[in-house]
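Intended use. Records like the one below are meant for learning the mapping from a protein sequence to its folded structure. Do not use them to infer anything beyond what is encoded.
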Amino acid sequence: MPTTDLTASVITMRPCVPAKDFGTSKRFYADLGFEIQPLGDGIANARLGRHSFLLQEFFVEELAKNFMMHLLVTNLDDWWKHIAKLDLSTKYGVQPPRAPKLEPWGLRVAYVFDPSGVLWHIAEEAN
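Structure written out for the chain above:
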């Protein structure tokens, strides 16, 4: 183990989310409420407040269909109202989002699929 605490030097850790069609994915995430910040050809930072991920113009179907993101919120019902208004399945040809439900592991979860097949768990702790 190094003598320095390396964890103190960490600024951020961001997953790289695949995009089959980079432009469509950027629009999808902007509609959801993410601020999209281009970082270069084929890569952008998708930010929600102080949280973010990297959207990359890279696609392997098997990877995308097995890729999940988890967003824990304090106001799932407000998120669901926002998501339902977007009509994502019509606009982007994605699987229809699934309404919040209580899961056996104790969270209420809504499910959203992005244009590349990435599954989002938007969840809140059950009361």
